[in-house]
Amino acid sequence: MKKTILFFIAFLSISNFANSASANIEFSIHVHQTTEKKDSDNKILRDENRSEMLVNIGDGYFSYTSKGTKYIYDFTKKRVLTIDMSKRIFSDDSLFSNIGFREYEFKNRLMLGGALAAAKIEDNPMQQVLSEHLFSLQKKDAHSKLSQTLENDFLLFAAGGKELLSYSRQGEQVAHKDKETFVKFFRYVFGGHPQILDKLLSDDVIPKSIRIHRYNMFHEINALTISAIKNTPKKSFSIEGNRPGVLSNDSDEFSIHLNKIKHSKNMPLENHLKLLLSRAEEHYKNGHYMDTMLAYLEYNLVSGLPFPSTFHEQKAILIQNRNVKQLLASLSPKSKEKAEQFLSVLQNLEKASKQQSHVLKIFEANIQMSLRHHQEAKELFYKALKINPYITGAYKDLGGIYFNEYNAVLAWRCWDVARKIAPTHKMLTQINKFETRLSMDHPEFF
User: Fold this and answer.
1) What is the DSSP string of 301-368?
2) Rounded to 10 degrees, what is the CA torsion of 361, 367, 372, 377?
3) Which of 4-18, 230-244, 266-280 has the highest mean pLDDT?
4) CB 225 within 8 A of CB 62
5) Mean pLDDT, rounded, for 51-73
């Protein structure tokens, strides 16, 4: 009888573990944030606020809700969904935009930090270890040294006399997959040095308390108190009842257009390409040879396909046209002087175009990019895409401008739209390779 009871207890324990392992987990986090800044008299000013986060961890995703906004990180589709819960609208963005920005800014901080160190600036805010801690990235060829101590049952990590993070050894046991996702949640939302996060992942306990210091242009301290873990029925996330839209914190003038084309259900590319070729034929018959050439170039920018046979039949006549000669000679400047000269030529050619001047704006935009006139280039891309919203190559280049401006979210929105229009376009090969490298170099983010 005793053996039977022990077996039954063991069976229940195994069953409960199996059920909890297949369930979602849910908990709340009380966040006490303190921000320290120095005023003009070098006095420290403190600003404090408190907030609550509700966190849900499921298979292949985590979500959290804070201040009326819900964030869902979907690692299966590599997407981030942000829902304004009062307006019932959401944005749908690439997960790559997060690590893409971090890596770009991290490299920039390392360069600036090195310059400040060479200038012997005291209390360098961009020293390597602090940037690693802020972005959860680590310089591969020179790992920073961190200290680890045990104080009042808290593991405390520091570097260069600055506290980075501490967490309680007491907490709640969870399934290993849930602990892995919890660390991902922490990495994305709060940061943390990779060496510390590796240590945090060394067991399957979610700590009751975590305190993280972040050193940027000011000193931010987040003290987290984590509630009891609840097992909830296994389920996926849902955005039902919400519609795609532009969130209130998105002020970019092109976001509405991007949102509209990205979520449009009808993408009649084949019909659009037929329309472009029929326009080219019509321009040719009417003797508008530059517009004919521009229509063929537009066809290639949209689809990535080579010029059709009709172009090769007409080529001998087209390239003899004075405007076409000027156009083809003004696309690839090799110097700043040539870029400025070619820009003027293209602007003048707009007056000779009957219907295709928006294509000239794309080439003008590329020259403005080479001159580092990014705002002027963006405005030209906007104008071209408002006339023809299917120009894949323009979205690819516009995304590049946003990325260089550290706006990785809008960069990937442009690239998402480009892939929706023509997923096999050769101009997108570079973006595909970029994402593949990010996945390989930073698997902890995926």
Assistant:
1) HHH-PPPPHHHHHHHHHHTTSHHHHHHHHTS--SSHHHHHHHHHHHHHHGGG-SS-HHHHHHHHHHHH
2) 10
3) 230-244
4) no
5) 97
Dihedral Cα 418, 298, 251, 400, nearest 10 deg = 60
pLDDT, one tens digit per residue, over 327-360 is 999 999 999 999 999 999 999 999 999 999 999 9
Q: Which helix (H) or strand (E) holds 289?
A: helix 289-303
CATH class of segment(s) 21-244: mainly beta
* Domain edges within the chain: 21-244, 256-445
> What letter represents residue 420's amino acid?
K
For the stretch 13-50, pLDDT in tens is: 433 444 455 789 999 999 999 998 887 777 888 999 99
What does the pLDDT read at residue 20?
A: 52
**How far apart (Å, rounded) are the C-alpha atoms in residues 440 and 73?**
19
For residues 255 and 409, the answer to whether their CB atoms sit within 8 Å is: no
- Residue 384 neighbours by CB distance under 10 Å: 24
Task: Give the alpha-carbon dihedral of 137, 112, 122, 44, to 10 degrees.
Answer: -70
Fold of 256-445: 1.25.40
Q: pLDDT value at position 9?
A: 40
Q: In whole angstroms, how far apart are CA 278 and each of 110, 182, 275, 306, 359?
A: 53, 56, 5, 16, 16
